[in-house]
Design goal:
28 helices, 743 residues, alpha/beta, 10% strand, four-stranded antiparallel beta sheet, six-stranded mixed beta sheet
Length: 743
């Protein structure tokens, strides 16, 4: 996959934008449980009072709380509060309206940063618990009865009775208050917080604040924040989905374009290395795998780690004492992922090869349907397909079954974590060590962490398969072409226009043990037909392939127009040559579009002339739409002879200097063969014709006949000369011609 990273470069800006949106989405999702916790803890349990240090406090209240503070706490309070008249305004609203029962003066908290605010809360919380502890100690002394019954909600019965005890508190020895303060700082933070909030609530009531309205306002404000955060998270999710889909589709489009472009540049040697079925799979299925992993990966690979790390941090902040539950669940998840990966990943490579095999069998069965029916081997082909399909199905089912274990296992872990959080959290709530909202938030963070690991595990399953697909695609893109254009291409000698020369050419196919062609030397000139004949496997088609530079000669030189074919551009070389292969391969479209395929500039007159020379007008006229008649894929709606004639016409419509006909007369009847040869003889006055054939009757009128045997030239001359001088040619001719024709 890393080899294909360069295809992400055009989408770098979109990727960065997606990452920013993912981060924003993660922050929104991580804040929702925290806001929910605030609604439960502050809005419901604390009546909408977030801080133990009240925003305003009466003079008696301040005197009471300062009695139980340390010197450092008093200094912090003096710096953070001011004594104000109720007639003064606070942000445009008078204190008298905010605190109707405040009297003439009250202490108002100044604007402080979050750190100072937390310190103030701690001071008031500790002071409240210190006071409660002192009251309990006083009640336990003989002869004392304060009627607080051990309750920590010391502000529930009002504050007047506490103010009455102020002289008693002031008269207490400092050691007594210090001892109570030392005990207070050892108390759990949640208990301290609840004590401070209870006192703050009493101070607000004393000032005439409507606690119910304050509670409702807090819940509504926090709920509005939750809706806004959820809306922002939803917008980010939609945008991320849109951008990731566009990125994945764009990368897949560029990959398909580059792979197709690379395949088009392959010589026959590279095409032999990769089967057609495998190349089709790499262009379609493999790139689709990469597209899918990019589409989900951009979202999951980046989003899941942020959510997992953020969820762990937020959960630990909510309850450090339950962090072991997160650690236990993470270990269980990692173990599950490792087991699944170790079993499933090796099968992905096997699966892609089985896709190749299935495509190969399907392609052969469809393209060879007529042969299969002719030989009555439908059952054999069904068995071949069934075997390939069964192997693929078994492997696919195995991987699917392994992956299907992930969801129930994850569900089991999630439910187990939920039960564990509720059980442990309930015990801590009962002991006042934790608040209900914190437990609910912890549970949600635990679910987010497990879900993130589920996303990561799914990506661990997708990525190996996509990595296999990426390696297969990269293999195509990184394949070095054996046929390449020179860095500084040369030109053609116009004085040798149309001349084809072979000079001591030897050729050996890659991996072969011996040469296919040995010391081939001849010259084909314009105005002449040079024919090549010989037994099967003698190298006739190889010579045609060397002229077109589908292969390069192992030794010697192949020259076209006076230039070595290795020293000119392939496009320029093939632009001078009209080629008709052994198999008349036509493309889907119309007859006219196929004839114009060699050169888009061919006029209607040009293609009509080419069709007439190729003896194709006879069957074209019989079609209602003529040249506009549809041609099925591969020319399936035409006969073999019709496809060969159209293939020849396509080569002629290009109006080339050189025409290479590679055994393109084999499917023609003798009458059509003779008529076509006569028409070509007139055309040969302007170009060079290189004709590969099996029939002697097809080549007997050629100006030059080259006879091959086991890759060597055993005779060059005219038909009459070769009959007299070349035994191999005489043997071929005598097997095809009558004694009168040989005489």
């Amino acid at each position: 996959m890393t080899k294909l990273a360069k295809f992400l470069k055009p989408f770098l800006a979109w990727i960065l934008l997606t990452l920013a949106l993912l981060f924003g989405q993660a922050m929104c999702d991580l804040n929702l449980p925290n806001l929910m916790s605030e609604i439960v803890n502050v809005g419901i349990q604390q009546s909408g009072i977030p801080h133990a240090a009240p925003d305003a406090i009466s003079q008696n209240g301040m005197k009471l709380m300062r009695t139980f503070m340390t010197d450092e706490g008093r200094r912090l309070v003096e710096e953070s509060y001011k004594l104000a008249d109720t007639a003064d305004s606070a942000g445009g609203t008078g204190y008298a309206k905010l605190y109707p029962a405040a009297g003439t003066q009250l202490y108002v908290k100044l604007r402080v940063d979050e750190a100072v605010s937390l310190e103030l809360d701690a001071v008031f919380e500790t002071a409240a618990w210190t006071m409660a502890h002192v009251l309990q100690e006083m009640e336990q002394q003989p002869g004392q009865s304060l009627n607080i019954g051990g309750s920590m909600d010391i502000g529930a019965a009002g504050l007047e009775w506490l103010y009455d005890l102020l002289p008693v508190f002031v008269a207490l020895p400092p050691s007594c208050i210090d001892a109570a303060w030392e005990d207070a700082v050892q108390v759990d933070g949640t208990v301290l917080q609840q004590s401070g909030i209870a006192m703050a609530k009493a101070f607000y009531r004393e000032l005439g604040v409507d606690i119910g309205a304050r509670q409702s306002g807090y819940i509504v404000r926090t709920g509005a924040w939750m809706l806004a955060v959820a809306l922002l998270g939803g917008i980010a999710t939609v945008l991320v989905c849109l951008l990731s889909s566009r990125i994945a589709a764009g990368v897949a489009r560029n990959l398909r374009r580059e792979v197709f472009k690379k395949i088009e540049s392959f010589s026959l040697a590279e095409l032999d290395r990769f089967s057609a079925a495998s190349l089709i799979t790499r262009c379609t299925n493999d790139i689709t795998q990469i597209q899918q992993v990019l589409m989900f990966g951009v979202r999951m690979v980046c989003y899941a780690p942020i959510m997992a790390a953020g969820g762990i941090v937020m959960a630990v902040r909510k309850s450090p004492s339950m962090s072991w539950i997160i650690a236990l669940s993470c270990l269980a998840l990692i173990g599950l992922i490792c087991v699944v990966l170790s079993v499933a990943v090796p099968k992905f490579k096997v699966m892609q090869k089985l896709v190749d095999r299935l495509n190969l069998v399907s392609r052969e069965a469809l393209s060879g349907m007529m042969v299969i029916r002719a030989f009555g081997t439908q059952e054999h082909e069904k068995t071949r397909f069934q075997s390939a399909n069964t192997d693929f199905t078994k492997t696919s089912l195995f991987i699917t079954r392994v992956m299907s274990l992930m969801m129930p296992a994850m569900t089991l872990i999630m439910n187990g974590v939920t039960v564990l959080v509720v059980w442990v959290g309930a015990r801590q709530i009962a002991s006042s060590a934790m608040q209900v909202g914190d437990m609910m938030a912890f549970m949600q963070y635990a679910m987010q962490i497990i879900t993130s690991f589920l996303m990561i595990s799914m990506m661990f399953l997708f990525i190996p398969r996509a990595a296999v697909a990426g390696a297969r695609v990269a293999e195509v893109l990184e394949t070095e072409n054996s046929i390449v254009d020179p860095k500084e291409p040369g030109g053609f000698d116009e004085g040798k226009r149309g001349v084809v020369e072979f000079r001591n050419v030897c050729f050996r196919y890659p991996g072969a043990e011996r040469d296919t062609l040995k010391d081939i030397t001849f010259t084909a000139r314009p105005g002449q037909t040079t024919a090549i004949i010989g037994p099967t496997g003698s190298g006739k088609s190889t010579i045609a392939n060397l002229v077109l530079r589908f292969f390069d000669a192992s030794e010697g030189q192949v020259l076209v127009g006076g230039a070595d074919v290795r020293e000119v551009e392939q496009k320029a070389l093939r632009g001078r040559i009209g080629y008709a292969p052994q198999k008349g391969m036509l493309l889907s479209g119309t007859i006219a579009s196929n004839l114009r395929y060699g050169g888009n500039g061919a006029s209607d007159e040009d293609i009509a002339e080419a069709a007439a020379i190729a003896q194709a007008m006879e069957f074209i006229r019989t079609k209602p739409e003529g040249f506009d008649s549809e041609v099925a894929q591969g020319g399936a709606n035409l006969s073999g002879g019709q496809k060969q004639r159209l293939s020849i016409a396509r080569a002629l419509a290009k109006n080339p200097e050189i025409i290479v006909l590679d055994d393109t007369f084999s499917a023609l009847d003798f009458k059509t063969d003779a008529a076509l040869r006569r028409a070509l003889r007139d055309r040969a006055k302007n170009c060079t014709i290189l004709l590969v054939a099996q029939r002697v009757s097809t080549i007997m009128n050629a100006e030059q006949i080259i006879v091959l045997d086991e890759g060597r030239i055993v005779g060059i001359g005219t038909h009459r000369q070769l009959l007299a001088e070349c035994p191999q040619y005489f043997e071929i001719a005598s097997s095809q011609l009558s004694q009168e024709e040989l005489a």
